[in-house]
Design goal:
single chain; alpha+beta; 2 strands; 14% strand
């Protein structure tokens, strides 16, 4: 998935939880795994 797509999903409230680390964004591996699993379960 392109990084910009991830940021678009976050801005829409549909992305994984994000932590702000100074000027950088950080993601917990568990949050990314859970988010990806939930996306795989959704019908298109």
């Amino acid at each position: 998935m392109p990084l910009q797509t991830l940021y678009n999903q976050i801005s829409l409230g549909a992305g994984p939880r994000m932590l702000k680390r100074g000027s950088r964004n950080a993601f917990r591996a568990q949050d990314l795994d859970e988010w990806m699993a939930s996306r795989l379960d959704q019908p298109r």
